[in-house]
Protein 1
Amino acid sequence: MSTISASSLAAALLRQEVLDLHAYHVPESSGYIKLDAMENPYLVPLELRDAIARIVAAAAINRYPDPNATSLKEKIRAVTGLPQGMEVLLGNGSDELIQLLAMAVHKPDAVMFSVEPSFVMYKMIATFTGMRYVGVPLNADFSLDLPATLAAIKRERPALIFLAYPNNPSGNLFSADAMAQIIRAAPGLVVVDEAYYAFASDSFIPCLASYPNLLVMRTFSKLGMAGLRLGFLAGSPAWIGQLEKLRLPYNVGVLPQLVAEKLLGHHEVLLQQAEQIKRDRAKLYQQLSEIAAVKVYASEANFLLFRVADANRVFNGLKQRGVLIKNLNSGHPMLKDCLRVTIGTPDENVKFIAALREVIIQSA
Ligand code: PMP
């Protein structure tokens, strides 16, 4: 029997970047009111679920999926209102597309660039694909610091820029004019990540033809399909055709293809849910802003960022009361004492606010 343990072997053989990484932490959530992951709290109506059950029952899961997902892509084009001539590339969630993009542009010294705080997977994927990552701080109100961003782009010449629009975890839309200046100034590819498009008042999809270095990335995770894992990149065929070469042939399974296609055929149902979430976001924003010890930030996403005196204490107090949200306190210096709550059902939101009031009164 070998005397070398698996852990010392792993430590010797794995890349240092991998050893240094902390895995993306997903907390245990069963039994909690789950408001931590920007999920849509609603299922679709029973009738539609029955129709899906019949589709699933008849699905050829003994066969590999359609590698081109032709009919799903048609539906996506239609519901997205993709400009003439633009193409889509499908991913197993948009996380997979971030990784694919990093692999595609990665030459020695290639830089991945974003603003901070933003979606943590940009930096994480840069690290594990071996790219150098540069993050420029946002202003204190989470707006773009345009002069600093433009100066850093000039200095670093990034191969790949990610801008989340709306941004996660702040929830705001950056100035469209500032975004356009960044896209024009960028020497490399700019990916506008519209994960929260369904809750936002603006999009860069109509601008795709205006910039040769622009791609728009979306996911259906926030629109009620987080469990299916489906995201896409939209852009000119010149980009999409090249990136297709890196996509693993069967990255979107038979069932996600069929179910997403059916759901997108009832897009209006999903959009109605998004409208409900937007109305409830406005209500929750109002309620949070009425609590003196809370500073809440305006959001165009399906969550709200807020700051309290002691985020760890509030987070734990809520958890003790059965409500799980996201504690961002140790994530980034600009997020000190910040928490993020996903908009739930009206009943879940009421329970969250009641628990929050209780915790805050107790710690006053
Ligand atoms: N982009 C942003 C800005 C996100 O917040 C998320 C999910 N939290 C994603 C991309 C990834 O979404 P998914 O992999 O579920 O498509």
Note: The two ends are 60 Å apart (CA to CA).
Protein 2
Amino acid sequence: MRKNIVAGNWKMNTTVPEGIALAKDVVAASAKVPASVKLIIATPFTHLVPVADVVKGSVVSLSAENCADKEKGAYTGEVSAAMLASAGCEYTILGHSERRQYYGETDEKLVEKTKLALANGLKVILCVGENLEEREAGKHFDVCKSQTENVLYNFSEEDLKNIVIAYEPVWAIGTGKTATAEQAEEIHAFIRKVVADKFGAKAAEDMSILYGGSCKPSNAKELFAQKDIDGGLIGGAALKAEDFIQIALSF
Ligand code: PGA
């Protein structure tokens, strides 16, 4: 059985003290969330060590937002998967559209990053999704298929147990425009089929596929009610503990 997951992606928001306070609020409110829902918060690198302390012993798991595509050494400014694991991370987000768009993250780099993350015991939240131009040109299925295949098909069925996919249509991220539940479900089911084509129906059934893009308390219920939507990757609404927990209560 696949897990329901609600993951907060804080992006480049909050100072360290603000982040600690937010994490404390999330931990305090997490008691309301049933054990069937996995809660994750992904924070900036600077916040990981103190926030790891805050979430210790709670049901909230810690994630990074990115990791390096190199193991270690002379790569100024980079943070390795081993560093993240040693800081207390259980997960890392990889391939977020903002990384792809602004920092030249390619599928090839994502294969390296995913290998290193898994080798260091991290679970991966791999993001895929089309931009507005691609959606309008009717290329959304092709884009999601190639982004999924280009990374996932380099891994084994065993590795897949530690990978979660997040479908995030770029046109819905931070825009207030959410994909309709039907639009999202259609792509989720399609991505699950792309997974099944290589790894079989069982592996695809067991994989959690999250929706991201202006997911909030008012629309989470309808999205999460879809058969192939197993939760959300939440940006803006994750910056308020109350909204984030409300979303987690929407299954
Ligand atoms: P948003 O961001 O919820 O603010 O649209 C989602 C994401 O980019 O992960």
Note: Residues 9, 168, 173-174, 212-215, 233-237 surround 2-phosphoglycolic acid (CB under 6 Å).
